[in-house]
Structure formats: C-alpha cells, structure tokens
Amino acid sequence: MEMRYSTHPEHAKHFTTEELRQHYLIQELFVPEEVKLVYTHEDRVIIGGIHPVNKSVALEGNDQIKAETFLERRELGVFNVGGSGTVKVDGETYELATKDCLYVGKGAKELIFESDSREKPAKFYIVSALAHTTYPTTKQSFADVPSESLGSQETANNRTLRRFIHDEGIQSCQLVMGMTTLENGSVWNSMPTHVHDRRMEVYFYFELDENARMFHLMGEPNETRHLVMKNDEAVISPPWSIHCGAATGSYTFIWGMAGENKTYKDMDQVAMSELR
C-alpha cells in the first residue's frame, strides 16, 4: 500500500508539476489480479482498484493499517466501472453490473472480488474511511438511484448527479460517494467551484476516450494549479483545495468524501472573481 502524506497549502504553492503529481495523482489503479491501494493522511482515506481477470481477488488486512482484516476499523464504498462482477462479503454474494455501488460496513471479515467474464472483466474502484460503528452492507444499482440534472449546454457543464452513499441514501459513518456524468458537448465539472475545509475529497475520472485528457484544477482559490490526467485515474483533494476541471471530451467521475460530516451541500462556494 502506497502512503501519501498531508501537505500544507503553503508548501503546495512551490511544488513542481512532477511533485504535484507525486502527492495527489493516483495512476495505474487496475492491475490484473492485484489490489492497488493508496493511503492518504487526508482524513486517513484509502483509495484503490481491484481488477480480477482470471481468478478471484481478496481484500485483506495488512501490517500498514495494523489490522487482521481490512474492515476491522473501516467502512468501504465499491463502484464497478468495468464488466459485470461480484463481491462476496462474509459468504454473501452481491452482483454488481457496470456503475453499480456496494457499501460494506465496519467489521466484515472476508471480501472476495470476481469477474463474470475474462473477456470483459470487472474493475472495482474502492474508497475506504475510518468507522466507529457498523452500518449494514447495502447494494445500490445505477438504474435505481435518483438523479439530478445540473448545469447547462450554454456553460458546457450539462451533467447528471447521482448520490449513492449519503445522509439520505445508503447510510455510513462518514463516507459519502456518488457519480456525475457529463453529457456530450459538456466538459466542465463542479464549476463554479468550492472548497469544504471540514472534509477531503477524491475524484476518479473514467469513460474518457483513450486519447482524451482531463485538466483537473486544484489549490487554494487564489493560488490554483492543474494536473493533466487520463482515463481511470484518481486525484486526492485536500480540504483546503478547490476541485474541478475540464476535459477534451465528455466523461464520468466518481466523487468520494470523508471527514467532519455527511452533508453533501456543506460547501464553501468560490466566486469566479476570487479565482487566480
């Protein structure tokens, strides 16, 4: 498991492009038959990818989190962004089609990930946060989750928001997760932008064309930086940082948050005039 440490905004102002990428960008999430994990000290969240192709893959505890099982003191959000697959939680099987979500509560011991087909294997994107109590393991299908239309074609940010794990949906200790899909011809997300100093956030971008690129904006509102990203990559956003971006084509992204509360609308809006 790779470790990423918290950074002060004053330090981030002086990072080179490569240093920004080393601190905040997560690449190569889906390696066949492996579990890729990144532990960030921003609210002690773990981000990862699990890509079973020819055999099942287990998510287990390790010495870095000093736990015999991965969810000994944690909760977990799972999104399948590949072909159909299954997640077995303590012997119970949950079938996940593309874009379906599964929440697994604290205390679950055995976690097994499998693909239904080698030709089109599943890709499980995961976000895990610390948990103090147990909430029931719950599946939410993409087809059944409520959606909300945001933005407009005129401002190139016509998008559909879907909340999966939140205070009025799947219950959790502190994890909040959802998905936003950009319509054809729209490229901007979360603009006008915001910060929320009470929790961190991580974006995972997918459904980008192979040759397309995402220009993800971060940093303090008056001291912005950018990262150039491609399909199936994630970016860590500290609580003091804005998080928004535009791509060279339409895309989908999964947002995950953890920290002080689960209120989705707890945001400090940033006026366009404040951006530098």
UniProtKB/TrEMBL annotation:
EC number(s) from the headed UniProt entry: 5.3.1.17
Keywords: Isomerase
Top-level taxon: Bacteria
Protein name, per record: 5-keto-4-deoxyuronate isomerase
UniProt organism field: Paenibacillus jamilae
